[in-house]
Specification:
By secondary structure, this protein is α/β, with parallel strands linked by helices. It contains 14 helices and 22 strands. The protein has helices at about 20-30, 45-50, 55-70, 85-110, 170-175, 190-205, 225-235, 290-295, 330-345, 375-380, 395-400, 425-440, 445-450, 460-470, and strands spanning about 1-5, 5-15, 35-40, 115-125, 130-135, 140-150, 150-155, 170, 185-190, 205-210, 240, 245-250, 255-260, 270-275, 275-280, 280-285, 315-320, 360, 365-370, 385-390, 405-410, 415-425. The chain has a five-stranded mixed barrel. The protein has a five-stranded parallel beta sheet with strand order 8-15-9-10-11. Strands 18-19-22-21-20 form a five-stranded antiparallel beta sheet, with helices on both faces. A hairpin with a 5-residue loop joins strand 13 (about 255-260) and strand 14. Helix 1 packs parallel to helix 9 (about 330-345), helix 3 runs antiparallel to helix 4 (about 85-110) and helix 3 (about 55-70) packs parallel to helix 6 (about 190-205). It binds 1,4-dihydronicotinamide adenine dinucleotide.
Length: about 475
């Protein structure tokens, strides 16, 4: 910290306290920098902690228990009475989980002596951030560096007039706070949010119809996983209308009507539901930052343009997370936060964008790292595949979760693992051994020769690796 005319000069002021901003703040403080964070919400944690990852996982977990109990456990010798749903209590449980996380983060800010300003931050010039507090008072913070970590917001559907009331026409925020279980829900977008939140409400008893303009669910996923996932969801009762273009979303006195047509524009359809969830992607949130005034440039996708060290076009101004290029994932933002803090402290910060796992928290869960088959084909890379189904894994049978498989993709010439894809119970936990292997440029033989504890689900990962370079034992 330096003092100039009795004024604090921060080493870094971070605008936004989501996983990108708050991790950057903590790391920078740990490295000895004087850090301030400007956040317009009353609470720290951004979308992820307040209205995204954490509350959605709290409800997904609770609804999964409810769905399991509703199916009953007679076959394993446990008689349970029909469970009763108390949605108000489930929502308050969700909120208490959110509050606990926010309290934890507030403690970490204090512990690391990070100064927290509640208000809207914008750029005045390089080295100066204006904060407009909730009471309208203005403050100017002086700083050596600025990090923009303002995240993203729900995307609209171009050409379709949609006004979110977060009760009948909802984004993910409203879908996580419904007061009653809707009888029916239309989900526009079969991506990550549509799949997670659609399955959440389906488990609680809602009839769910998912509409997407692509011909596959979870567009970026490996097609084989996507197909298996769709089948599993259809078996649970979710209805998919793929290759459809949304024409209109109209709120009625009760509920909503969604009009859509086949991609070729031949047939027109209408569906009514109590609630519509619009989950057609997210846009970077840069409004009000005064980027143009200061000269911070955007790229062709409307994200803040950065170089490989997260530097924007203005000296001393950095950007990371959903506002810059790359997957809109909390953990990608976190890793960028650490790298930027290291760079600001004169160290070498780095993120390996080839090894960023992604997880869809449905049941079965889906987890993926590295390249998909489609990407390898498009890049002209010769590859071999090893697959192993959970039906052949002892622990999966014990658990009663035999849906899905593990798939490893390795270079045909070198055997280096280029991608790993898992659909199945706990896939999100198992993916990391493939990520570690890939980070160390390991081969499928390396993975297949590592002793795995028995009986575990992770043995399926090893067996998939064995299938890639040789043959599995249990299939
Ligand atoms: P997404 O990009 O995953 O999926 C959007 C879907 O909407 C795509 O399938 C697309 O084809 C479809 N779509 C777009 N416009 C449409 C239209 N007009 N009509 C019909 N379909 C249309 O985006 P999503 O699910 O909204 O998630 C936003 C971001 O948040 C993503 O980047 C996602 O990775 C991230 N996220 C990650 C989570 C996780 O890691 N578990 C959880 C929730 C969100």
């Amino acid at each position: 910290m330096r003092f100039r005319r009795n004024k604090v000069v921060y080493d870094v002021v971070i605008i936004g306290s989501g996983p990108g901003g708050y991790v950057c703040a903590i790391k920078a403080a740990q490295l000895g920098l004087k850090v301030a964070v400007v956040e317009k919400r009353d609470t720290l944690g951004g979308t992820c902690l307040n209205v995204g990852c954490i509350p959605s996982k709290a409800l997904l977990q609770a609804s999964e228990i409810y769905a399991e109990l509703s199916k009953g456990f007679d076959s394993i010798g446990i008689k349970v009475r029909r469970p009763e749903l108390d949605i108000a209590e489930m929502m308050s449980h969700k909120q208490s989980v959110v509050n606990a996380n926010i309290t934890g983060l507030t403690f970490l800010f204090k512990k690391n002596k990070i100064i927290h300003f509640v208000g809207t931050g914008s750029l005045l010039q390089s080295g100066k951030v204006e904060v407009i507090e909730q009471n309208g008072r203005k403050k100017v913070l002086e700083t050596k560096n600025i990090v923009l970590a303002t995240g993203s917001k729900a995307a609209a559907i171009p050409g379709v007039d949609i006004s979110f009331d977060e009760k009948v026409i909802v984004s993910s925020t409203g879908a996580l706070s419904l007061r009653t279980v809707p009888k029916s829900m239309i989900v526009i977008g079969a991506g990550v949010i549509g799949s997670e939140l659609g399955s959440l409400w389906q488990r609680l008893g809602t009839k769910v119809i998912v509409i997407d303009f692509l011909d596959k669910v979870l567009g970026r996923m490996d097609r084989e996983l996507s197909k298996t996932f769709q089948k599993c969801m259809e078996a649970k009762g979710i209805i998919y209308r793929l290759c459809m273009k949304i024409i209109a979303v109209k709120k009625e006195q009760k509920g909503v009507v969604v009009s859509f047509e086949s991609a070729q524009g031949v047939s027109l359809f209408h569906e009514r539901a109590d609630v519509v969830l619009v989950a057609t992607g997210r846009d970077p949130f840069t409004e009000g930052l005064c980027l143009e005034e200061v000269g911070v440039l955007l790229d062709g996708d409307g994200r803040i343009k950065i170089d490989k060290n997260w530097r924007t076009s203005v000296a001393g101004v950095y950007a990371l997370g959903d506002v810059v290029t790359g997957p809109m994932l909390a953990h990608k933002a976190e890793d960028e936060g650490i790298a930027v803090a290291e760079i600001l402290s004169g160290k070498g910060g780095h993120v390996n964008f080839d090894v960023i796992p992604s997880v869809v928290y449905t049941q079965p869960e889906i987890a993926s790292v590295g390249k998909t088959e489609e990407e390898l084909k498009a890049a002209g890379i010769a590859y071999k595949i090893g697959k192993f189904p959970f039906t052949s894994n002892g622990r999966a049978r014990v658990n009663g979760h035999t849906d899905g498989f593990v798939k490893i993709l390795a270079c045909a010439k070198t055997d280096r693992v280029l991608g790993g894809h898992i659909i199945g119970f706990c896939a999100g936990e198992m993916i990391h051994e493939i990520a570690v292997l890939m980070e160390f440029c390991g081969s499928s033989e390396d993975l297949g020769r590592i002793c795995h504890a028995h009986p575990t689900l992770s043995e399926a990962v090893r067996e998939a690796a064995l299938s890639t370079f040789s043959e599995p034992i249990h299939a």
